[in-house]
Amino acid sequence: MFDRFARSFALVKASAAVLRKDSQLLVFPFMSGLASLAVILCFALPMFGLKAFDRMDGHNAMIYSTAFAFYVVQYFVIFYFNVALVGAAMIRMDGGVPSLSDGLKVANGRLGAILGYAVIAATVGMVLRAIQERVGFLGRIIVGMLGVGWTIATFLVVPVLVASDKGPIESIKDSAALLKQTWGENVIGQAGMSTFFTVLYVALLLGGAGLVAGAVALHSGVLLALVVACLIAMLLFAGLIQSALSGIYSAALYRYASGGNTGGAFDKTVLAGAFQPKE
Questions:
Q1: Which of 205, 239, 247, 242 is nearest to 103 (CA)?
Q2: Given a cut of 50, is residue 185 above it in pLDDT?
Q3: Is the pLDDT at 278 greater than 50, yes or no?
Q4: Are 119 and 105 contacting, i.e. CB atoms less than 8 angstroms apart?
Q5: Cα Rg of the chain (Å, integer)
Q6: For 22-133, where are the alpha helices, taking DSSP H only?
Q7: Which one of 19, 63, 205, 278 has the minimum C-beta count within 10 Å?
Q8: CA distances from residue 105 to 84, 109, 248 in whole angstroms, order as listed
């Protein structure tokens, strides 16, 4: 168990080394977050205006069609900026100095594949959600496991889209094949990184709660507002770092799996241990 945490910490440090060289990579998840919020508002506000949510009965075709369209657009936005981030990270791994426009240029060149992948992901998401709404507790656990399996199988889709001229279906197949071929299904690296940030979020929330309690005890509204604003800012910044590190990590894993070349940014021994094949 200690080795797993140590390896995860090493992965975070290696990813952070790339991020430190190109801190502007944080702009991609920031832009993704803003665009995602805009998508939510563009879909939610008209629905509220039409009072569509008041007429939800489980058989409303408009609700399901709108939900599917929302998933497609939301996934497209997320994948678009992920492709831009991974594209920029790969430029850095090749020894280049990527700019924001370089990453966006990579994403713009893969618009068709990104849209196709968004449609597939939205379809899978809708199907899993529909099944989950119609099964019992055990069925929901099974559906949840299917969702985890889908996440694992598509872990390297974005770097495949960046590095090749393949469509979304071929990219999904390549992603699953690379993971199975090189490290199997036991995804230790991503779980470790998620654990690291979960601990960070909990620490921030606990620390923030203590500061809020102190501000309340002092009856200082200004101090309370300042503490809350700082806490929100730190949580958002930590989220940006996690998203950027995850993108860099996926790029490095793809490079290592497909040819073993990570441009010197990662220790190959650390990467090889990030995913342990099942016995």
A1: 247
A2: no
A3: no
A4: no
A5: 21
A6: 27-49, 61-93, 100-108, 111-132
A7: 278
A8: 7, 6, 17
